[in-house]
Design goal:
Blueprint lengths: L4 E12 L7 E9 L3 E5 L6 H9 L1 H4 L3 E9 L2 E2 L7 H5 E4 L12 H11 L4 H14 L15 H13 L5 E5 L7 H17 L3 E5 L3 H7 L2 E6 L2 E7 H6 L1 H6 L6 H11 L11 H13 L1
Parallel strand pairs: 3-8, 3-9, 6-7, 7-8
Antiparallel strand pairs: 1-2, 1-4, 4-5, 9-10
The protein binds adenosine-5'-triphosphate and magnesium ion (MG).
Length: about 280
Amino acid sequence: MHVSKIIEVQDYTWKYINTSVPALAEINLTIEEGSFVGVIGPNGAGKTTLAFSIDGLVPGQYNGVKKGSVKVFGKEVEDYDKGELQQLVGVVFSDPEAQFTAMTVEDELVFGMENIGLSLAEIKERLEWVTELTELSNLLMKPPYEISGGQKQRVALAAVLAMRPKILILDEPTSMLDPVSRGRIFKVLAKLKEEENNTIIVIEHSLENLVPLADQMILMSESKLVLHDKTQPFFQQSKMLLEKGAFPPGAMLFFHLLHERGLYQGEYPLTVAGGAELLRDLMGK
Ligand SMILES: Nc1ncnc2c1ncn2[C@@H]1O[C@H](COP(=O)(O)OP(=O)(O)OP(=O)(O)O)[C@@H](O)[C@H]1O
Ligand SMILES: [Mg+2]
């Protein structure tokens, strides 16, 4: 199968107006279609600005100075017609509240689809698909402001998915959620990864759910992209991650600390279950 470069960022620098330091500096990044990419890095590193740059909010909605190039599907983001790029790239933020306008969850989902001129049959089909995927059928008739934070976030995700974007970006989608609701959001992402060919980019501080799904990881720090690698080799560089203010998941950190003390050589486990197994092996020796 031909793998296409769905996102290509070259020598890209972005400085918001009236700031002295660029939010993103000399970024080079290629993402292939169908990838599942995790993005981590400390506050202010430029993660959200990178998301904005891919969906055209930067430079569309913000003033600043751009150097270099950001292409989505081979086309520079500014060269897309208004609204065209937003259909290709769907973004979910951590605070869904601001996005809601309708009186019921169902209307919220249908509204966006009507807006892009889909037929009734298509709207019905997508509504069924997305409702099942995000487990919202019991909530369709409720007002969006009467549901819980976790449910709101599933509605926000469903509304974006109903647009069937080729690229889905989630910017800290679970930072306001409890572990159960967080798990449900990641369950949807896991199904998407399995069943669809979306390119998915997830910016997340909480890594326990992200790491098992991500094929590759990006570390941002101080406006720069400092590391981009497949998930395992990425976390093998835990020393650098810690130096840059990013925290590997607990199981990895544990094995990294063993490594630092000369007690363990080899690959760090990606999950707690993997770590437990490794530990059993080590203790057995
Ligand atoms: N609208 C704006 N105008 C001016 N500067 C901005 C604007 N938005 C972000 N910045 C600056 O750009 C830099 C990168 O911010 P960004 O929000 O992209 O970081 P982040 O990695 O998403 O951080 P966080 O983890 O806190 O969400 C920061 O120095 C921030 O102050
Ligand atoms: Mg951010």
